[in-house]
Design a protein that fits this description.
single chain, Rossmann fold, Glutamyl-tRNA Synthetase, domain 3, 2 domains, three-stranded parallel sheet, 11 helices, 12 strands, disordered C terminus, binds glutamic acid
C-alpha cells in the first residue's frame, strides 16, 4: 500500500554544468514547497550524463546553494553518471522492439540533407532530423558498426507511434489534458555518440525508478514532455503528472542563464543576500504562476 509520502514524490534535477542561478532556485523552491504542502517527498537528482561539461565542483555548488536556501532533500542523491547501465537496459528494450536505430550522421551530413529541401520540417529545437539513417538496412547497419563508425541511437518515432497505436496525452496541472505531438521533435537521440544515453532517455528512466509522481519543471522543457510520454509508454513506465511552471525572468525580461555569473546564488550569497528574503520573493513569484495560462505559442 502507498504511504502518503510515496503518493507525492517530486524532484529537482539540475545539470552540474555551472553554478545555480535564481531561475534554478525558483524551480527547486516550487517543487520543494509543493512536496511539503502535500506531505510528500522531495528528491534531488544530479543529471551529469555529459561527462565533458559536468564538473564535481558544480555538484558541490548545487548542494551548497540549495542548503543555503534552506532546502532539505533525501540522500543518497542519484547521480546519472553512476547509472549508465539502467539507461542501456532501457535502450536495449527499444532496440529489441525495433524502435531505435543507429545513426551514423555527422552534424554536417544532417545540415547538408536539410539544406537540400526548402520545406525541411522544423520543430521547437530547430530542424527535425531528416531520417537519413532510418532507411539503412540491417546489413548496412551491421557493416558500419563492425567498421567502428561512430553512431548514436535514435528513436524511430513513426514505428513507435504505430506500436502504441493510440494518441497520447498527459495531465498538466496548469494546462489540463495535453495531447502529445511528439512529431515536433521527431527521431530524437536516445544515446549519443559520446555518451551511452541522452537527456530524454535517462530522465524518463530515472523518474520511474525513483517513483516520481509529479514532475515540476520549467516550461523550457514543455516540448520534451511530448517525447517523454512516448518513451514512458514504450517502456511500460508509470505516467507522472506534470506542472510546467513559467520561467523566472530578470529585470530585462530575459531568462536567467548559467553564463551570467552575476545572478548565481554563489554571488548573491557572497554579496550578503538574505536567503529567507530571496526565498519569500521567489515563492511570491510562484503564486503568480498559478494563474491559468494560455498555452498558445508553446
Ligand atoms: N537536467 C535538466 C536541466 O538542468 C532538467 C531536467 C528535468 O527537470 O526534467 O535543465
Amino acid at each position: 500500500m502507498l504511504t502518503k509520502t510515496d503518493a507525492f514524490v517530486t524532484r529537482f534535477a539540475p545539470s552540474p554544468t555551472g553554478r545555480l542561478h535564481k531561475g534554478h532556485a525558483f524551480s527547486a523552491l516550487l517543487a520543494n514547497a509543493r512536496a511539503r504542502s502535500e506531505g510528500g517527498r522531495f528528491l534531488l537528482r544530479i543529471e551529469d550524463i555529459d561527462t565533458t561539461r559536468c564538473r564535481d565542483e558544480f555538484v558541490a555548488g548545487i548542494f551548497e546553494d540549495l542548503a543555503w536556501l534552506g532546502l532539505e532533500w533525501e540522500t543518497p542523491v542519484r547521480r546519472q553518471s553512476e547509472h549508465f547501465a539502467d539507461y542501456q537496459a532501457a535502450l536495449e528494450t527499444l532496440r529489441t522492439e525495433g524502435l531505435a536505430y543507429p545513426c551514423f550522421c555527422t552534424r554536417k551530413d544532417i545540415e547538408a540533407e536539410i539544406a537540400k529541401s526548402a520545406s525541411a520540417p522544423h520543430g521547437p529545437d530547430g530542424p527535425i532530423y531528416p531520417g537519413i539513417c532510418r532507411g539503412l538496412n540491417t546489413a548496412e547497419r551491421g557493416r558500419k558498426i563492425a567498421e567502428g563508425t561512430p553512431h548514436a541511437w535514435r528513436l524511430d518515432l513513426a514505428a513507435a507511434l504505430a506500436h502504441i497505436g493510440a494518441p497520447l496525452a498527459w495531465q498538466d496541472e496548469i494546462r489540463g489534458t495535453v495531447q502529445a505531438t511528439p512529431e515536433e521533435l521527431g527521431d530524437v537521440v536516445l544515446a549519443r555518440k559520446d555518451t551511452p544515453t541522452s537527456y530524454h532517455l535517462s530522465v524518463v528512466v530515472d523518474d520511474a525508478l525513483q517513483g516520481v509522481t509529479h514532475i515540476i519543471r520549467g516550461e523550457d522543457l514543455w516540448h520534451a514532455t511530448h517525447i517523454h510520454v512516448v518513451l514512458q509508454r514504450l517502456l511500460g513506465l508509470p505516467k507522472p503528472a506534470y506542472h510546467h511552471h513559467g520561467l523566472l525572468l530578470d529585470e530585462n525580461g530575459q531568462r536567467f542563464a548559467k553564463r551570467n555569473r552575476s545572478v548565481t546564488l554563489e554571488i548573491l550569497r557572497a554579496g550578503g543576500t538574505d536567503p529567507q528574503a530571496l526565498k519569500r520573493h521567489l515563492l511570491s513569484q510562484a503564486a503568480i504562476q498559478h494563474l491559468p495560462r494560455n498555452p498558445a505559442g508553446l
